[in-house]
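Human: For the file, kindly provide a plain-text protein record giving the amino acid sequence and the backbone structure tokens, at your earliest convenience.
Assistant:
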Amino acid sequence: MHIAFFLYVDAGKGHITPAKALSDAALRLGHTTVVADLFETLNAPIINWMSKSNWRLMLHFPRLEAFIDPKQDSWFNARLFRFLGTHSHAVKDFKAWYDANTPDCIVVAHFLAGCLIQPIVAQLGLPIPVFEYVTDVVFTLGWE
């Protein structure tokens, strides 16, 4: 089985470490894997820069993060991400990545990455499951 692991943002070790650990475990089980940066795959360098900058800022202000994250990690933003993912060049960019990598399943290491990837896969009618491995659950208690 060829498994793709997506990290949400390459700002730190919180998303890449679980994605690589899952990839390493799958390799030990005899699968092939690819670890991909979501925003590179979707050709969204500005969004990547914004996410990375926000994450690095919040490292310096943990109380601010505790205040802001519950407001950012909302159902509204999840729906907004789904809409933007399926009404932009992201569909075409993901399809090009998919054709080059042809995974049997996808695992995303952040819930908002799932909000982008799952609707794109559905819109394209691709026959692959998308699983979410939530690495950030400190302030995101409303996601069930």
User: Anything to note?
Assistant: The beta strands are 2-7, 32-37, 105-108, 130-132. The mean pLDDT is 82.
